[in-house]
Design a protein that fits this description.
Elements (H helix, E strand, L loop, with lengths): L1 H13 L7 H8 L3 H11 L4 H16 L6 H7 L5 H12 L3 H6 L8 E5 L3 H14 L18 H10 L4 E6 L2 E11 L2 E8 L8 H15 L4 E6 L4 H6 L3 E8 L4 H10 L5 E7 L3 E6 L6 H11 L3 E9 L1
Parallel strand pairs: 4-5
Antiparallel strand pairs: 1-2, 2-3, 3-4, 5-9, 6-8, 6-9, 7-8
Length: 312
Amino acid sequence: MAAVYRKIVQYIDAHIKDDISISEIADMAGYSANHIYKLFNAYSPYPIMEYIRRKKLYSAANEMYTGRTLYDIALAYGYETPAGFYKAFKSVFGCSPSEYKNNIRKEGSVMFIDNAKNSRELERVLEFFKTVHCGHPATTIDPESDEKFGQKWWCEQWRENPELILYAKDGDKICAVTAGFGEGGSVTVEEAVLEEYRNTGIFEALFVELEKRAKRLGYAAVVLGIGQGEEAFYARLGYLGKTLIQSEKYSVEQLKAFNERDNNYEVTGAGVYQGHINQIWLNASLLDKKLKQKYEKELGDCRVQVIVSKEL
C-alpha cells in the first residue's frame, strides 16, 4: 500500500495546479474512493482533500519567490477571488499572503537561499547546525577526525556536491540549513531551522530547492530522519515515512522478536548498518510513542526514529 500512496502523492505533485477530485485519484490509482480515504488515514496526518489543499497553498507560497503577483498565483491555484486565497492562506500559514511575501526575498531584499560557495560559508553552516542540534554526532566529533559527520567528512561531501549544502539567510543571519550528501542513488539530508522561522515558508522553500538540485544531479530520492512531531510538515511536502529501530546491543532477530511479541507492525526490511548497527524497518509512517518508550526505555540500547523519503 505504501507504493500506492507514493503514486498518489506523485500524481498530486504533477497536477498541483489542476482541480483534483477524489474520483479522479481513485480512477488513476485503481481503487475505490473509500479505500483512498483509508490509505491517507494510515500514511498521512491529513485526510486526502486537506492534504491537497495544503499542498496547493505551499506550492503557491513557493511561487512568491519568483516575483509573480499574488493575484496571478491565486488564479493559478484555483482561487477565483483574492479574498478566498487570503482566507485559505491565513488558515495554514497564520499570516496573510502579503505579510508572507514581505518576509521573503525578491531581488534586492534580505532573505535568500544559496549553497555554501567556499570553506568559510561551509564552516558557518556547520556552526549553525551545531548550535541548533547540540546533541547530534556532528557536534561532538573532533574537527580533525575522519569520522562520519565530522568537519573533515563534511568538507569531502561539500567538494563532491557543493550544490546540496544549502542555507537560508535573513540579512546576515543564517536561519535554516539543509545539508545533503549522496548515498547510493539517494540524497540523505541533515537539516536545522531556528524555531521562529518554522512557519515562514523559508524551510519549505529550502527543501523544494534541494529536491530540484538533487534531481538535476541524477539522484532518485531524498531521505532524512525526522524529530518527534515533525511528521505533518514532511507529509505535506510529499514525504512518506517508515519507522527505523536501531541497536548495537540486540541482534536483528531479537529486534524482530520484540516487535512480533507485541504484534506491533509489519517488518518491511532488516539488516546491519556499518557492520555493527542492527536495524529493522517497520511499516509505520507516524511515530508511535508507546513503541518508542518500549524500545528506548524498557529495553534500552535502542533508538526509534521515523525516516521519511520522497522519490524525485
